[in-house]
Specification:
It contains 17 helices and 17 strands. By secondary structure, the chain is α+β, with helices and mostly antiparallel strands. It folds into three domains: about 140 residues, no CATH class; about 120 residues, no CATH class; about 180 residues, no CATH class. Helix 6 packs antiparallel against helix 7 and helix 9 runs parallel beside helix 16. The longest helix has about 55 residues. The model has no long low-confidence stretch (mean pLDDT about 80).
């Protein structure tokens, strides 16, 4: 039982490391001051920006992200009018693959910016800076937020509730069992004149000592790592560790206080004879295992789903990145004459370089509950619109399961087989006229181009003629890098600035989604490790208590040359029933896990049934 408290200490350290890395990953700023993100109505040259910054006594940051994913960030921060605490060069981090560099802003001729950041706690200075910009003819929209730094409130976020419930319930459970299992020691101490408070304090010290064996060593190792990588994070980590230890200690103290009543009512004779009610303890442990098995399988299911989504999303993102597609994003709408001029410019390019796309409004992960939409409103919201030249990339299958091929000169309405009877109603509802309907396979998953890892399910798809325009009203225009660069030059000659109508690489948005999936996967892995360790601890407790309950009977059977098959079988049936029932309810794929667990328990009980002979002879 003492080793269980050591493992509780190890689990707490694992959580502290996991949470510290999450905090560090979200902190991408040069200090802990308040963040004000500026977005101007038009671009400003660096000379004017520096002049306004100096007059307002604020430090301006121009941040450029070349890569952003969990623990793997490549960022350049250019500063204008740097504060005294700003240090140029590489910023240290707990992540070895994180590269953040602070440099002086490069004043290249005619260089202009529209977006930048100010870190300043003094709101008066920020307001003064904004007014200076507006006086210079630049309207500014400011978004304020606090920088990410560790505080105790973070530990109580919904994200961490699962950890606290599992670890603290386990601590409460194990502490209670520990006091009951030391009944003989309690009786002897009472016989020697020890008070209830003194006995409870002695057992409490043992629990703290054994927890510290796993906790302190892990904390020291990670502290050494922090000192080597980024010593500035040491204070935050030690504060987190202190709070976690105090919280865990509070659970132990509560049980110790309740144990005083238990010790007071424990009789001398029964205690010394070690008459523990193992049957009640065993039932308590079985109930706890039911709850824990449900939690463990739910988290394991989430882990598998997140891993598959990340894998599929990454593959799709790599495919799209290889095509190097761009999207034209308008912050200012051109007038009718300019729009015609832009469209005429885009029309000169080949059909292989421009694509039209409108995704479904109801995107799902593959493991979310699916629904076949029957009403026309829902069918419309689940519809995909794509130009004919995107068809090879969608991977749509016909009603026979073969890859769909169509004539590029027509428009088509692709209707899943299970909605085929509604094809005329759908075409009429969407005002498509005499569009040609084509039956495709039902229940197809089609991954979204803009959100890798998300899919439309059983969608009706409109294959439209290609509109060679810079933008379209109903969706997005994808274009190759060649078209995007030429269109950008065209916009500059028309008097637009880069920030007015931006050519954004689709890969930038994809990397943001992949980063989110990586974080979710990391969280799932950490929770699974913690819950899996808890599950093992409960299995150990379950085995130990049942063995204590049946130890003497098994020993007698062994002395008589009989096998304790019935008792072993009962335990295996109890345990297997819990696992199988939870498997069926949560995820049937985990049913096979009952086999290795049953084999391990059988081998352990079989071995213990022979080892217990000496114990019974000694009167233990």
């Amino acid at each position: 039982m003492k080793k269980i408290f050591t493992l509780i200490g190890i689990m707490t350290v694992i959580f502290s490391v996991y949470f510290m890395l999450l905090v560090v990953d979200k902190s991408n700023y040069i200090d802990e001051s308040r963040i004000s993100d500026f977005s101007l109505s038009k671009q400003i040259n660096l000379e004017t920006l520096e002049e306004c910054a100096k007059e307002s006594n604020v430090c301006v940051q121009i941040r450029t992200f070349n890569n952003y994913s969990f623990g793997n960030t490549d960022c350049k921060v250019e500063v204008i009018n740097p504060a005294k605490n700003v240090k140029y060069g590489a910023v240290r981090s707990l992540f070895p693959n994180r590269h953040m560099k602070i440099i002086k802003a490069q004043k290249i001729e005619n260089r202009k910016v529209r977006y930048f950041t100010v870190q300043e706690n003094n709101s008066t200075r920020v307001s003064k800076f904004k007014k200076k910009l507006e006086k210079s003819g630049f309207e500014a929209m400011v978004t304020c937020k606090e920088s990410v730094e560790f505080n105790l409130g973070m530990l109580f976020s919904p994200l961490n509730i699962g950890f606290f419930i599992s670890v603290f319930c386990l601590a409460l459970f194990c502490t209670s069992i520990y006091y009951i299992s030391r009944l003989k020691e309690i009786g002897i101490l009472k016989l020697n004149g020890w008070s209830e408070n003194r006995i409870s304090l002695r057992l409490y010290k043992d629990i703290i000592k054994n927890t510290a064996y796993g906790f302190v060593s892990g904390v020291i190792l990670f502290c050494i790592y922090i000192i080597i990588m980024d010593v500035s994070q040491l204070y935050s980590y030690l504060l987190m560790v202190l709070f976690l230890m105090l919280s865990l200690n509070l659970v132990y103290i509560c049980v110790a206080a309740i144990a005083v009543v238990f010790i007071k009512n424990a009789g001398y004779i029964d205690s010394i004879k070690n008459k523990k009610n193992n049957k009640i303890i065993f039932i308590m442990t079985m109930a706890f295992k039911v709850v824990l098995t449900v939690v463990a399988f739910i988290i394991a299911t989430q882990l598998i789903e997140n891993a598959i989504r990340l894998n599929e999303g990454t593959k799709k993102a790599e495919e799209i990145e290889a095509r190097n597609w761009y999207i034209c994003t308008q912050h200012i709408s051109p007038n009718e004459k300019e729009e015609k001029e832009l469209n005429a410019f885009v029309e000169q390019y080949d059909d292989k370089e421009i694509f039209n796309y409108c995704p479904s409004d109801t995107l799902l992960s593959k493991y979310e509950n699916t629904k076949i939409y029957k009403d026309l409103d829902s069918i419309e919201s689940n519809m995909i619109i794509a130009s004919y030249n995107l068809l090879p990339y969608l991977g749509i299958k016909d009603k026979n399961g073969e890859l769909l091929k169509l004539d590029s000169e027509k428009e088509y309405l692709l209707v899943p087989k299970n909605l085929w009877k509604k094809r005329k109603k759908i075409a009429k509802y969407e005002e498509m006229g005499d569009i040609e309907p084509v039956c495709i396979a039902s229940k197809q998953w089609i991954m979204d181009f803009e959100t890798p890892g998300k899919y439309s399910y059983n969608s009706v798809i409109q294959i439209s003629k290609l509109e060679k325009k810079a933008t379209i009203s109903y969706g997005d225009v994808f274009m190759t890098e060649k078209v995007a660069k030429q269109l950008e030059k065209k916009l500059l000659t028309m008097g637009y600035e880069k920030s007015d109508i931006e050519m954004e690489a689709l890969s930038t948005e994809l990397r943001t989604h992949i980063s989110t999936y990586q974080t979710e996967l990391f969280e799932s892995v950490m929770y699974f490790v913690i819950v899996f360790l808890t599950y093992i601890l409960v299995d150990i407790s379950l085995f130990s208590i049942y063995y204590e309950f049946k130890k003497k009977k098994m020993a007698v059977y062994s002395l008589l040359g009989k096998k304790a098959t019935n008792d072993i079988s009962k335990f295996l049936i109890y345990n297997a029933t819990i696992v199988i029932v939870v498997d069926i309810v949560v995820n049937k794929k985990f049913v096979c896990l009952v086999i290795p667990e049953t084999i391990i328990f059988y081998a352990m009980l079989k071995r213990k049934s022979f080892e217990s002979i000496g114990t019974v002879i000694k009167g233990r």
